[in-house]
């Protein structure tokens, strides 16, 4: 716990200025010589610190044949400190630059194995929802990951052609070209491209918001088309 001197220093006073403020508050009016004697601060340092204390609003100079100093009352000093600090805080809030939004790159993933690993990782890391659009053939690669996601309480929406045996998922059936895949997880991660079990397969992965929104709209359109065709099924 901080002591009084340390607290005063937090308001912008030096240690000598803080000690002099306490002495003036206790003793009343003091000359520079008396203040130095009471506090034990060397006289030259005491005069310098008293002048600074007046400048910082902690004391008043009482004019006379011999200059004397008196402290600003504790209540007034604290009010002034708070008022000035509020002004400082407002300036900081107004002038401090906003953090730059992180750039989310577009990452090209090449090779069937690497793409499949990324798809599985996206599903494994999903916390709320996953939308997956691919043919029934491609779904066989990720059945275990989908089942685990469902067990975690993740909402899984599948858009597929052919029959899927995925209990707990919301499935929309529609015509799908083999190899074309699109996945969105938690409205934050997107992967799109094509696979054919080849090392030349390529997919695009990103957290880039515009791309996420673009693929999301595309999947919404697929779902609407499926519903118009009567292809929705809750497993």
From TrEMBL:
Descriptive protein name: Transcriptional regulator, TrmB family
Transcription regulator TrmB N-terminal domain ranges (all copies): 8-72
Family annotation (InterPro entries): TrmB-like, Tscrpt_reg_TrmB_C, Tscrpt_reg_TrmB_N, WH-like_DNA-bd_sf, WH_DNA-bd_sf
Taxonomic placement: Bacteria, Bacillati, Bacillota, Clostridia, Eubacteriales
Pfam families given in the database record: Regulator_TrmB (PF11495), TrmB (PF01978)
Domain of life: Bacteria
Domain Transcription regulator TrmB C-terminal as annotated: residue spans: 108-193
Species annotation: Pseudobacteroides cellulosolvens ATCC 35603 = DSM 2933
């Amino acid at each position: 716990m901080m002591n009084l001197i340390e607290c005063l220093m937090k308001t912008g006073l030096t240690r000598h200025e803080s000690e002099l403020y306490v002495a003036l508050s206790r003793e009343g009016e003091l000359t520079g010589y008396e203040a130095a004697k009471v506090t034990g601060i060397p006289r030259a340092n005491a005069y310098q610190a008293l002048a600074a204390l007046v400048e910082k609003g902690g004391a008043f100079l009482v004019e006379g044949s011999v200059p004397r100093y008196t402290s600003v009352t504790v209540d007034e000093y604290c009010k002034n400190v708070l008022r000035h600090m509020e002004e400082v805080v407002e300036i900081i809030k107004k002038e401090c630059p906003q953090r730059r939004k992180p750039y989310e790159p577009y990452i090209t993933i090449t090779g069937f194995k690497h793409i499949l690993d990324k798809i599985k990782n996206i599903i494994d890391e999903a916390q709320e929802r996953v939308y997956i659009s691919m043919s029934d053939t491609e779904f066989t690669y990720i059945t275990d990951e989908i089942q685990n996601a469902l067990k975690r309480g993740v909402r899984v929406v599948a858009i597929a052609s052919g029959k899927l045996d995925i209990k707990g998922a919301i499935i929309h059936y529609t015509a799908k070209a083999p190899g074309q895949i699109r996945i969105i997880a938690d409205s934050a991660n997107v992967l799109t491209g094509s696979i054919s079990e080849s090392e030349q397969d390529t997919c695009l992965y990103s957290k880039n918001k515009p791309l996420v929104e673009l693929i999301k709209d595309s999947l919404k359109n697929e779902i609407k088309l499926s519903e118009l065709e009567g292809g929705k099924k809750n497993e």
